[in-house]
Specification:
Layout lengths: L1 E6 L4 H12 L4 E8 L3 H11 L3 E4 L16 E4 L5 H11 L3 E4 L3 H17 L3 E3 L2 H9 L10 E6 L9 H4 L4 H4 L9 H9 L1 H13 L7 E5 L5 E6 L5 E5 L5 H9 L12 H4 L13 H12 L3 H17 L5 H14 L8 H20 L2
Parallel strand pairs: 1-2, 1-4, 2-3, 4-5, 5-6, 7-8
Antiparallel strand pairs: 7-9, 9-10
Helix pairs in contact: 3-4, 4-9, 4-13, 8-13, 9-12, 13-14, 13-15, 14-15
This protein binds magnesium ion.
């Protein structure tokens, strides 16, 4: 029986983790369920799964070691910068981590990987792209490769002109063509910021350089990512867009349990790939540049993005202004090396405050 401490149990990924556990009661159970809001849903989950611990914590609350005490796997499924504190707490508790929170590696990759290595903690990717890479690498982190190729659906505005992008609304952005996800990440998919984040995550997860990671648009979201090897062979993982597969596999790999239907290739017909239009979606390049710069830079970018996306969802700024806000914050705030979580936390607060001022003038 694998005992899971699930952080972010009422979010989009958290609900799907609960579904995986529900379908495999003989294999998985919850030792702890933690959410940042939605107490009613937490109560329902607690009644259904009887974890030893069920906690509704404020997003700025410090994670407690008790959350991870009785688990085999810490499943970090909450969104946002606050996920980094949970990931670090799980690393320090010495627990295997199933990682669905992006900000943990985007903002804290340097610290998280350093501490995980020192503690011998394994970090297993849950995101569909990174799970696909893991599968294509035969679950080996030391396998040599030439290039990692991440696929991107391109989001709902893939072929929009720069002019047209000025007029898109939050409702338009929330209509993702292939994946059903939370609001923040759906907007991040539309700006391609999410793909920039995934390049940074891949760098840390597979201990590689940015020049060995590429992103390509694949509108059907059937090929979840590919690995190119030295001899020119390219291995891909295919599947319908359904997060339950990578969630489940993160818990059981290399064993595979029944989960989803296999893709019907005749019904799907053609699969397409095209160049990622970075010139119309500056968030992608901003993320990559921040990732290359390192230190507190990705944290500044992320803090600015969280405020800017919220403002876009509230109708306060236009779609292109998301990137403009991020750029403004990166241009005006000093970048430092990051030797501690506290340094990142300060950078996060500064970025948010600066972004708030630049959007709302206060
Ligand atoms: Mg993804």
């Amino acid at each position: 029986m694998i005992r899971i401490a699930l952080i972010g149990c009422t979010g989009s990924i958290g609900r799907q983790v609960a579904d995986v556990v529900r379908r495999n009661r003989d294999r998985f159970c919850f030792s702890a369920l933690v959410c940042g809001g939605n107490g009613e849903e937490l109560n329902a989950l607690a009644a259904e799964f009887s974890p030893a611990l069920a906690v509704c914590a404020a997003s700025d609350a410090r994670p407690k070691e008790a959350y991870f005490e009785d688990c085999d796997v810490a499943f970090i499924a909450c969104g946002g910068f606050c996920g980094l504190a949970y990931t670090l707490a799980a690393v320090r508790a010495g627990k295997k981590i199933a990682l669905a929170n992006k900000e943990s590696l985007v903002c804290g990759g340097e610290i998280v990987m350093r501490e995980a290595k020192a503690k011998g903690v394994e970090i297993v990717p849950v995101d569909s792209e990174h799970s696909a890479l893991f599968q294509a690498l035969s679950f080996r982190r030391d396998a040599p490769f030439r290039r990692l190729i991440l696929t991107a659906s391109g989001g709902p505005f893939l072929h929009f002109s720069a002019e047209k992008l000025k007029t898109v609304t939050a409702a338009d952005a929330l209509r993702h063509p292939t994946w059903k996800m939370g609001a923040k990440i759906t907007v991040d998919s539309a700006t391609l910021l999410n793909k920039g984040y995934e390049v940074i995550e891949a760098k840390w997860l597979y201990d590689t350089e940015f020049k060995k990671i590429a992103a390509v648009v694949h509108p059907e979201s059937i090929v979840h990512s590919l690995v190119a090897f030295e001899d020119g062979a390219v291995i891909a993982q295919l599947g319908y867009p359904d997060m339950r597969l990578p969630i489940q596999l993160a818990l059981t790999y290399p064993e595979r349990l029944p989960c989803a239907a296999e893709p019907d290739l005749e019904q799907i017909g053609a699969l397409h790939f095209e160049r990622l239009p970075a010139e119309r979606f500056p968030c992608f390049s901003l993320a990559l540049a921040a990732g290359r710069e390192g230190g507190t830079c990705p944290t500044l970018l992320n803090g600015a993005a969280e405020i800017a996306v919220r403002a876009f969802l509230d109708g306060r700024i236009t779609f292109p202004q998301i990137a403009e806000t991020i750029e403004c914050v990166l241009n005006h705030l000093p970048k430092e090396s990051c030797d501690s979580f506290e340094a990142l936390e300060q950078a996060d607060l500064r970025a948010r405050a600066y972004a708030m001022r630049s959007i709302y003038g206060k």
